[in-house]
Amino acid sequence: MTGRGAGGRKAQLLDAAIRYLTRHGVADLSLRPLGKAIGTSARLLVFHFGSKERLLRDVLQAVQARLQASFAAIAGAQRDGGQGDGRQRDGKRGPMRRFWAWATSTENLPRLRLLYEVQFLALQNPRVFGRYLGNASSRWIELIAEHLPPGLRNAAVATLCAAVFDGLVIELLSTGDRRRTEQALDRFVAMLARAAGR
Fold first, then answer.
1. For the chain, is the Cβ count within 10 Å smaller at the N or the C terminus?
2. Domain total of the chain
């Protein structure tokens, strides 16, 4: 339950906008068709969010925050109950592989695609889209570094992990080849484990 009043309605609209944008993307975003699709109007979207730009900012921040919270929860579970070989006592794989399974699920892969779309649009048109990236990359690097083994806990290794993950997700989105991309991820995780002396 999202609550009552304007705050609750705004949260409902934000969730609906996330669902819409994961299906339709952001390049040609217009409030009128968005409002119609999610059962409101452009005027009410402006009332709740202030502008199309602020709506898009709120959507992207919410998607980033949800992904990061999920990564932290998965990595935290590994830290609390894992073993030194990078696997859980119950036989599950380590946090990077489990986050991959979560992030590339049918529900979450479109959200990642939305974030990558904005990242590429920001490279092409930084004046319009650059502001939406904010400090997202640096926050991911900090979050990943917090959950690396002590000997690998630095920004360079965290950047490498993020880059490998991003590259493999983009490869999965481009080719649909889950088997090959997951094999590549497993190879990378094994390399990290060797570098950590595990």
1. N
2. 2
Confirm whether 17 is domain-assigned.
Answer: yes
Domain presence at residue 163: yes
Task: Quick: pLDDT tens for 15-38.
Answer: 999 999 999 998 888 999 999 999
Give me the CATH number covering residue 43.
1.10.10
Phi, psi of 125 (to 5 degrees): -140, 70
Question: Looking at the domain assignment, is residue 42 inside a domain?
Answer: yes
Q: Is there a contact between 57 and 132 (Cβ–Cβ < 8 Å)? A: yes
How many other CB atoms are there within 10 angstroms of residue 63's CB atom?
Answer: 21
Where in the sequence is the domain holding 175, given as residue range(s)?
Answer: 61-195
Residue 82's DSSP bridge partners are: 88
- Burial class from Cβ neighbours inside 10 Å (0-12, 13-18, 19+) for residue 62 reads middle
pTM over 0.85: no
Query: Could you tell me if 150 and 97 lie in one domain?
Result: yes
- Read off φ and ψ for residue 150, nearest 5 degrees: -50, -40
